[in-house]
Amino acid sequence: MKWSLNPGKTAKGLSLAILQPLHLLLDAIPIPGAKDGIGILLDVVEGIDKTSRNSSTLLELENHLRSLTDLLEPVTKMDQNNIPSGLEDDVRKLSKDLEHIASSVQSKSSAGRVRRFLERNKDEHDLPTFSQNVKAALDRFQLSQTLRQEQELFLEKRSAAVMSLPRANSAAYDSGREDAPSSCLEGTRVSILTEIMSWFENMDSSTPPVYWLVGLAGIGKSTIAKTVAERAGKNKMLGGSFFFSRSDAPLRNPSLVFPTLAFQLALSDNEFKNAIGEAIQQDPTLGHKNTFSQFEGLILTPLGRLGPTRQTTLIVLDALDECEEQGADTILQLLLSHASQLPFLRVLITSRPEPHISSVFTQARNLAKRVLHDIEASVIEEDLRLYIRSELGRILKRLELGNVSDWTEGEINSLVEKSGKLFIYAATSIRFIGDARVRDPRGHLRLILDSQLSKESEVTPYSQLDSLYVGVLRNSLSDSNRKAIVKRFQTVVGSIVLLRQPLPMGSLAEFVQCTPDDVDTALRHLRSVIIPPSTPDEAPRIYHPSFRDFIMDPSRCAIPDFVIVAGPDQELRHALRCLELMATFLKQDIAGISDVSLLNSEVKGLEEKVRDVLLAEVQYACRYWASHLSCVELGEKRMVEALEGFSKRLILMWIEAMSLIGSLSSAVVWIEVAHRWAVYHSALAFTPYDTALYKTYSKDVKSCIRVLQGVEAQWPQSLTTFIGHSSGVYSVAFSPDGLWLASGSEEGMLCLWDAMLGECIATLLGHSAAVTSLAFSPDGLQLASGSLDETLCLWDPMLHTCTVTLQGHSHGITSVAFSPDGSRLASGSDDHTLWLWDAMLGMHTVTLQGHSDSVESVAFSPDGLQLVSGSYDHTLCLWDAMSGTHIATLHHHSDSVSSVAFSPDGLHIASGSDDHTICLWDAVLGVHIATLQGHSDSVYSVAFSPNGSWLASGSGSGDKTIHLWDAMSGTHIATLHGHSHSVNSVTFSPDSLWLASGSGDQTLCLWDPMLGTPITTPHGHSNSVLSVAFSPDGLRLASGSYDHTLWLWDVMSGAHTATLEGHSDWIISVAFSPDGVQLASGSFDKTICIWDVMHATCIATLQGHSDWVRSVAFSPDNLRLASGSSDSTVCLWDPVLGVHIATSGHSKDQVGSVAFSPNGLLLASGSWDSSVYLLDAMSGAHIATLHGHSKGVTLVAFSPDGSWLASGSYDHTVCLWDAMSRVCIATLEVDSRNVLDLVFSFDGHTLISQTPTNTFAWDLTSQPPQLVSSSILEVFPPTISLTSLMWSRVVCSVNPELQLGVRMAML
Question: CA-CA 20 to 30 A from 991: which of 7, 393, 972, 1184?
C-alpha cells in the first residue's frame, strides 16, 4: 500500500511540518508489514481539526509524532538484511500497537467520518486519550529498545570476559593446524566408534563420566578422537576439545587447558557463555590461576549451577601424555574427582599407557576404559586393509599412474602385515610411497616390503615402525655427500625436534643460521615423517610423536649419525643463539611507543608493530632462552660470559619485549631466579631506592611516574611469595632434600611447590575439608596429610597420588608427624586422642589417651623414643613413643597449646600457645625453663631450625608476624613482616637456610633467616657506602657514601666517632696517609678533600680535575697525594700545603686507579684505555706505558718490596709486571668477572684478587704463578685497605661481633 499526504486534510489540523517527514519515512521503512499500522495512524491524525478546545492536546500529539519520526528515521537507513532481529520485532509491534489505537478511534464513528467524530464537542475527551495511547505505545517501544540494548551490552561484556581468557588457539580438533590428525576412513574403526558414541550419548546416571582410550603410540588414538569430536560437533553436542602436542608449547601447557576448554564451551552454548562469563567478571584473574582454581572457577562452579537436565556435552582430550607430566596428573585428578558433579558432561581422554597417567586412572572408581592395542588383530587388519587400499588408489590417481586395481592383493596384504596394529606405520608408508617429488610409488613400496628386521634386534611393538623409519632415513642419504646430509639433518631436524616451539621456515633458517634452501634440502626426502612447509611463513612439523621418540632413542635408531641427542651441548647452542638474536635485534622502545604511560591495550596497531619489529625467531629467543639455559651445565664459561652481557645491556629491553609479546608472566620465573631484576620504565619508580638495580638504571630510564612517598629502601624480608591457594594456608612442610615444599589449605587442597622457583608442581585432591597438618617421611617417599574431614592421607609425592586413606578418628585431625625412622606415624585429633600408625602398612597400632580436650599438635623426639603433644586443655603430654605409655603432663600455659616441637638434639621442647607466649621445656626432666614473650596474638606454630640455632614462631591475625629467637638463650632476634593474615605454620628447610610460612592470606612466604638476624651495623649514612679504608693502625675506619659524607668509626666498638661534611656529591675514594694523621677523599663533585683525622675538619679542598675523582693515594712519605680522574688525567698534590704540583695527561680514557711504589719514586695509574702508565712520582713525568690488557684497567698495586706491579682489568685478567724492566711476567685469569680489588701479602709471596663472586690467591714464588687454595685470612690481616666489597668479607670473618661489611659495603 502506498501512503501519500493529502494537503487539504491538514488545513485545519496538524501542520505539514509534522506529517510530511512521517509520510516520507513511511515508504522507506525496510521492514515488511511495519508500514500499515503507522499509515492507518496517519489517516486518523490527518482528519483532526484544530479548535480552541483541543489546541494543547494537539501540541502534545505533534510532539509524539515527532518522536515517532525520530525513532523510525535510523531504521530507514538500514539494509533489510542487516536489521537486528530484536529491532525488527519491536518496530512490527509498534506498528501493531498504533494500528490498534487508530482502529479503535475509527470504530467509534462510521467509515469515512473520523474527522467529524473528533470534531464533536461531546467526544473531545477522546482526543487526549488517543494522544496518551500513542505516547504509551512509543514509550513501550523505547523501553523495549533500552532493555534490549542493555541486554546486548550485558552479553557483550560476558563475551568480552570470555574472550579475555588465555588459550591455546590451535588446540581444537578443527583448528586446521598442519600436524592435526586425520579422521577415520569411512567404514573403519566401526566397533570402537560405536562404543564411544553410545557411551557419550547415554544419559543414564550410572554411565561413567570419563572414558579412557589407551594405546601404544601410532595405534590411531588421535584419529578416533578427532572422528568422535567431529560427530559430536555435527550433533551440536561437542563442548570443547584439546589435542595436546609435545612440539608446541601452548599445546603442552597444562595452565591453558581449562581456560581453553572454558572458551570453547562458551562458544558452543549461550548458557555456558553466560555462566562462564559471569565467573570471569567476578574474578578476572581466573584464567591465570593454578589449575585447580581454573577448573573450579571456570568449569565446575559455573556449569554446576545450570542443573542436570541439559543434553549431554562432550569434551575430548587427546594425547594427554604429551602434556607436561606434572600438569597432566592434576588435570586427571580434577576430572576424575569432579566430573560426576556435572551429570551432563562426558570426557573422552586418549593417551599412551605412561606410568604417571596410568597410576591416576587405576585409582578411579567410575571409569570407562578401552585398551586399543587389545582389540582383536583381525578387526584392526580389516580396517588397515581398507585404509591402505583406498590410499594406494588415491596415490596412483593423483600421480596419474594408474588406479587401485594395479596394486596386487599380495602387496596390500604384505603392507597390512608389516603395519601390525599401528596405523602410523600404514600412514607413514603411504606418505613415503606417494612422495610427489620422487614419483616412484612402486619403487618405494618395494623398499618397504623388502626391509627385514635384524635377527639380533629385540622384537618390540615398534620394531616394524623403527625399520620403516630407518628406511626413510637411508633413502635420504647419498654416498657422495653423506657428511653434508648428516650435518644438515642434525642442524635442521635436530632444531625441529628440540626447539620448544615450531618456527616458520624462514625463521628456522635464521635461527640455525642457514638459508631457507638449506632447510628445504634437509627436508626434501623426509616428507613422509616431517610435514613440509608450503611457504616461508609456515613451520615444518613432525607428523607423529613416534618419529621424535625414534630419532632420539639410540636403541631404536639403527643409524647413529641420525640420532638426535638432547643434551647440554645442544641446549647451550640454542641458549647462546637466543642471546645472540636478542643482542642483535632488541633495543629500547623497540615498538616506537614513546609514551610509556600507555597500556599495551591502548596502543593502536601494536600487534602489527610487534610483528614487524620482533620477528618470529626473536620472539622465540625472548620466550625460551631461559628454558634452554636451565638445561646447560652450571659454570659453562661461554654461557657465563653471555649472561653477563645480557644482565648489563639487555635485561630491561628483554622485559619490554616480553610485555609486547604477551609473555611477561613467563619472565617472572626467570626474574625470581635472577633475584628480582624485573623493572622497566614506570616499574623502576617502585623499586627500592637503596638497591643496585635502582642505582644502575635510574639514571638511564626516564619514568612517567615519580613516587613521593612509600618506596622501601630495600627489598622486603620475604624472599618469595607462593600464590596459588584460593583459601587460607593451614600447614607447610619441606621435603627432606629441601627441593619441595608442601602446603595444605582450608578448601582441602594440597599443593606441591618447587621450593626454589616457587612454581606449583602439582595439586593433590583427596580431602573434603581443611588440611591442618603435613609431614614428609624422612626418606621423602611419603607425604602425610591430616584433615578436619577425620582422615589421614598418605601420598606418593613423585606420582602425586594418594596411596592410602587412614580412617579411625571420630573428629577432625589437627596434627601429623612421622617418626625419625619413618616406620610410624602419629596423629592428634579433636577427639582428644593421639593415634599411632604403621606407616608402611597403613594400620592403626595404638591409641594414646590422656588429654581432656582437642590434641592440637604432636612431635617425635629426634631419637624416636618419645612423643610430645599439645592440647586445647592448656597442657603438654610426654609419651613413650614405642608403647604409648603416658610419661608426664607439663603445666604452665594459661590457654590452649597450638604447637609443639623438639629441638634437634632432643634436649628441649618448645610450645606455642593461645596465651601469646612460647614456653621452653627441659625434655629430659619435663620442667619449664623459660617463657618467650613478644607476640600480640595466639602462637599457632613453632619450629626449631635443623642446625639448632633458631626457633621460629608464627602468630594469629592480630599479630601477623613471625618471630625468630635464639634457640639456646631464648633471646629475641628478629620480627619478620610480610603476611596480611594469621601465620598458621612455619618450618625450616633441612639445611636451615630457608624458613617457610603459610598464612590465612592464602600465600606461602619463603624467608632468609640470616637476613632476620640483627647485626651491630653502624647506622648513620642515609645512602649506600661506595668506599672504605682502614687507618694504618687498624683502629679507625673511614667510609664514603652516596650521601656526600664521610664517616669515621671506632673499629673495636663499632661506634661512629665523626661525620665529615664538605663534598657536594658522591664520595668515590678514600685513603689514609701512612702516618694516619690525614684522610683524603675523592668525589663525584670533581674535588679532593684533605681532612684532619684527629679534629675531623677539612684542611683543604683541591680543585683541578674537570670530571669526577675515581682514586686517591698518599705517597709513603706523606709528601705527595695522587688523584686519578674520569677526565683522563692524574694530578699530583702537596697535601700539607694543599697545592697542585703537576698533571699527567697521557691517558686516553678515564683513570681508574693510582698507586705509589713503596720507595715513593714511581706512580702507577690504570686507565680505561687498557694501559698501565708509569710516572715519575715527584714531577709527574711520563716514564713508560705498559700494554697487556684488552679492556680498561681498574686497579693497580705494587708489591711490598716494589719489584712487582699488578693490574686488574675488565678483561677478567690480572697482569703481573716486573716494575724495573716493565715486562709482563704473567697473565692470570679470574672467573669471567670484573676484578674488584688487588692486594699483595706482607711478604710479597702471594697476590690476592677479588671478583664479585670469588677470591683468588696466587703463589708468586712459583714460576709461573700458581693458583692456590689459601684462605684470604691466612694471607693478610684486616688492616690492609681494601675496597668495600672485599673489606666487608674480611671484617665479617675476622670479627663476627662487628659484622660491619654486610650492610655498609653493599654497592
Answer: 972
| Measured torsion, CA atoms of residues 887, 893, 894, 896, in degrees rounded to the nearest 10 | -70
Q: CA-based Rg of the chain, rounded to a whole angstrom? A: 41
How far is it, in rounded angstroms, from Cα 710 to Cα 176?
52
- The answer to whether the CB of 890 falls within 8 A of the CB of 875 is yes
Torsion of CA 174, 179, 184, 185, to 10 degrees: 110
- Reported as a single tens digit per residue, the pLDDT across 857-885 is 999 999 999 999 999 999 999 999 988 89
Record the cell numbers describing residue 1290, joined without a space.
674480611
At residue 17's C-alpha, the angle toward residues 52 and 79, to 5°, is 135
Taking the C-alpha atoms of residue 667 and residue 627, their distance in angstroms, rounded to an integer, is 11
Per-residue pLDDT tens over the stretch 1218-1244:
988 889 989 988 766 667 778 887 778
Q: Give yes or no for a contact between 570 and 592, defined as CB atoms under 8 angstroms apart.
A: no
CA angle 54/59/60 to nearest 5° reads 100
Q: Which DSSP helix (H) or strand (E) runs through 264?
A: helix 257-268
Grid cell, residue 954, equals: 608464627
- What gap in Å lies between CA 763 and CA 1197, rounded to an integer? 58
Residue 1249 has pLDDT above 50, yes or no: yes
Range name among 531-545, 714-728, 882-896 with the lowest pLDDT average: 714-728
Please determine, for residue 1214, whether its predicted confidence score (pLDDT) is greater than 70. yes
- Give the C-alpha separation, 1212 to 1195, whole Å: 12
**pLDDT tens string 566-580:** 888 888 899 999 999
Look-up of cell digits 591475625: 957
**b/e 1278-1287 (16+ beta carbons within 10 angstroms → b):** bebbbbbbbb
Whether the link from the prior residue into 1264 is cis, omega within 30° of 0, is yes
Q: Which DSSP string corresponds to 313-370?
A: EEEEEE-GGGS-HHHHHHHHHHHHHHGGGSTTEEEEEEE---HHHHHHHTT-SSEEEE
Q: Are 1150 and 1126 in contact (CB under 8 A)?
A: yes
Per-residue pLDDT tens for 837-857? Answer: 998 888 899 999 999 999 999
As a whole number of angstroms, the distance between CA 503 and CA 538 comes to 8
Q: Which DSSP category does 453 fall into?
A: -
| pLDDT per position as a tens digit, 183-240 | 888 888 898 999 999 998 888 888 999 999 998 878 889 999 999 999 999 999 999 9
The C-alpha atoms of residue 987 and residue 773 are separated, in whole angstroms, by 12
Q: Which three cell numbers stand for residue 984?
A: 598458621
Please say whether the beta carbons of 210 and 364 come within 8 A: yes
C-alpha cell at 857: 599438635
Cβ count near 828 (within 10 Å): 31
Helix (H, G, I), strand (E, B) or coil at 1120: coil
DSSP letter, residue 910: E
- Residue 856, classed as helix, strand or coil, is strand
User: Do 586 and 654 touch, CB atoms closer than 8 A?
Assistant: yes
Task: For 901, list phi and psi in degrees, rounded to 5.
Answer: -155, 140
Q: What is the mean pLDDT of residues 726-735?
A: 83
Residue type, 1234: N
* Model confidence band, residue 22 (pLDDT cutoffs 50, 70, 90): confident
Exposed/middle/buried for 56, CB within 10 Å: 0-12, 13-18, 19+?
exposed
Residue 1150 and residue 1111 in contact, taking contact as beta carbons nearer than 8 Å = no
pLDDT digits (tens, 9 = 90+) for 122-144: 445 577 788 888 888 888 877 77
